[in-house]
Amino acid sequence: MHDKTLAELSAGLAAGEFSSVELTRHFLGRIERFDGQLNSFITVTAEPALAQALAADERRRRGEAGPLTGIPLAQKDIFCTDGVRTSCASKMLDNFIAPYDATVVAQCNAAGMVMLGKTNMDEFAMGSSNETSYFGPVKNPWDTVAVPGGSSGGSAAAVAARLTPAATGTDTGGSIRQPAALCGISGIKPTYGRVSRYGMIAFASSLDQAGPMARTAEDCALLLGAIAGFDPRDSTSVEREVPDYRAALGNDLKGLKIGLPKEYFGAGLDPAVAQAVEAAINEYRKLGAEVVEISLPNTGLAVPTYYVVAPAECSSNLSRMDGVRFGYRCDNPKDLEDLYKRSRGEGFGPEVKRRIMIGTYALSAGYYDAYYLKAQQMRQLISDDFRRAFETVDVIMGPTSPTVAFNAGEKTDDPVAMYLADVYTIAANLAGLPGMSIPAGFVGNRPVGLQLIGNYFDEARLLNVAHQYQLTTDWHQRAPQGFE
Amino acid sequence: MALERKDVENIAHLARLAISEADIPEYARNLSSILALVEQMSAVDTTGVHPMAHPLDATQRLREDVVTETDQREHFQAIAPAVEAGLYLVPKVIE
Q: SS3 for A391?
């Protein structure tokens, strides 16, 4: 059952081939059996999952099932789940039992989906290798000495190893796309504002966006349809109709104009990754697409810009973790300042502290113009690059990551080297554009991701462009060995 | 921009983060290298560029001024480190 895609499982449930309870037991059994090797889950919610599965089967008997009713999924541990620990992979929230559901979680529940558990991630979503988690690193199922990428590394590894048919992720600078690429699965970061941020623990509010991670573009389309939409409880949620993403998957690609930014194929890109990406582009030529070179001249400045905006916003968002109302509190504080400082100093890990300090510095008196204001101006220039590009092309393509998965420990001593792992993904967040990664080959036994960037609210087209490629290739069907 | 020990101590204080003495040199080194990365922005002249506040130029939505939240104090305080009589407890702030 675990080799079936979400779409196939949906059809199987509808045809009565198996029940949601059977499906849920099967995946819980796989988590039990294999996750010791991967550490992709922080919390497994076996009992509530079986109760949800029973309810889903009952709903189906009443004739009220939708396409996702009874389908198991995993939630990234950044989404608040009522009554279930929501740790954000931090010691700070190790004891935090969320008192409400995130909108994304509520929508999955409303669709009748079954939550298997909460997936591991980089602490507060800050990292590109899932090595900053308080609960230990996640291993890449394709090669367990390699990282799965981050920050949604647990979600990506769990989907790749078939421990769940799908998972949610969040993407602030590449945290859905980069782990999807490194683990050989599909994932889409929608347009900023497309999916509600309510109850999704904030990292950088002007960049954060949630999205689905699954094996195929079709599965992502199904799940995105369930979680997208306007939410009055998120002040930046966009009031705009959600199209039927699955219905848009049948369009052919004749005449599609694909832009290849020359800056995405320069120095720093591993030649073997470049080769796989070029082969994928050739496949698109065969499908009738027209490929042109474009330029996004400010590409090289996306990472520097991001490391002002993201830390500045994180230093503000994480100020709520103060040891007073929820979360970790230090022992025997001698006064209020000591309570704040030691609760935060002991509760946050080193990467989170670094980013809070960078943000605090950038926002401190006298530096605002030089850092945050300058970065917001750079964002405008980066967005203008994309705006110009989309005047002539429909989709932008390139590598998701400059290399395949690197080894654990390889970049942990050098934060800047780690940051550059996101060199191709960050610009889409700065501009608020949707981006996707799909499997497009291997270097050795490690997967390569192809990145697709679309215009605002063009998720339906991105998903179809990805789906058409998956109809003629089988990279997305490959499974890592040892998890049969 | 290279940060000194006293800069790191000041930033940690502003951020209300206790960091250990022994870790200060490493923070100084790492934060300085991150700031060096960020400095690359200064190569671009942004005179007259309008700072981007929102990718879709959205403005703040307003709603009717009516009560929408119910009182869930006990529910929310159940996860607090220390409460008494419906209040959050912290060390004494006034002697």
A: coil
Say how many domains are in chain A.
2
In the three-class reduction of DSSP (H, G, I as helix; E, B as strand; rest coil), residue A165 is classed as: coil
pLDDT of residue A378: 97
Has A295 been annotated as catalytic? no
A357 closest CA partner among B91, B67, B30, B82:
B30
Helix (H, G, I), strand (E, B) or coil at A238: coil
Per residue in A460-470, pLDDT (tens digit) is 999 999 999 99
Q: For position B63, what pLDDT does the model report?
A: 87
Q: Which site among A319, A357, A371, A457 would you substitute to test the B interface, given the most B Cβ atoms closer than 10 Å to its Cβ?
A: A357
What average pLDDT does range A286-314 have in this prediction? 97
Q: Work out the mean pLDDT of chain B and round it to a whole number.
A: 93
Q: What is the pLDDT at residue B57?
A: 76
Which tokens is B23 given?
A: 């870790």
Contact A374 B41 (CB under 8 A): yes
What is the predicted pLDDT for the residue at B53?
84
In a domain, B57, yes or no: no
Does A175 participate in catalysis according to the annotation? yes
* A234: Cβ contacts below 8 Å, ≥ 6 apart: A103, A196, A197, A198
pLDDT in tens, A46-76: 999 999 999 999 999 999 999 999 999 999 9
DSSP letter for each residue of A453-473:
EESTT-HHHHHHHHHHHHHH-
For B87, the closest chain A residue by CA position comes to: A325
Is-catalytic flag, A343? no
The per-residue pLDDT for range A308-317, each reduced to its tens digit, is: 999 999 999 9
Query: Domain range for residue B25?
Result: 5-42
Whether A324 and A237 share a structural domain? no
DSSP symbol at A139: P
Is residue A43 domain-resident? yes
Domain end residue (candidates: A329, A357, A376): A376
* Domain boundary pick from A376, A392, A415: A376
User: Is residue A148 in some structural domain?
Assistant: yes
- Number of CB pairs, chain A paired with chain B, less than 8 A apart: 159
Split into its structural domains, chain B has a count of 1
In a domain, B63, yes or no: no
Cβ-defined contact of B17 to A431 (cutoff 8 Å): no
Q: From CA A26, how far away is CA B51, in angstroms rounded?
A: 51
Q: Single out the catalytic residue among A10, A76, A186, A437.
A: A76
Contact predicate A48/A84, CB 8 Å:
yes
Is residue B59 a part of any domain in this protein?
A: no
Give how far B15 is from chain A: nearest CA, Å.
6
pLDDT for res B60: 82
Q: Which two tokens stand for residue A274?
A: 């470049």
User: What percentage of chain A exceeds 70 in pLDDT?
Assistant: 100
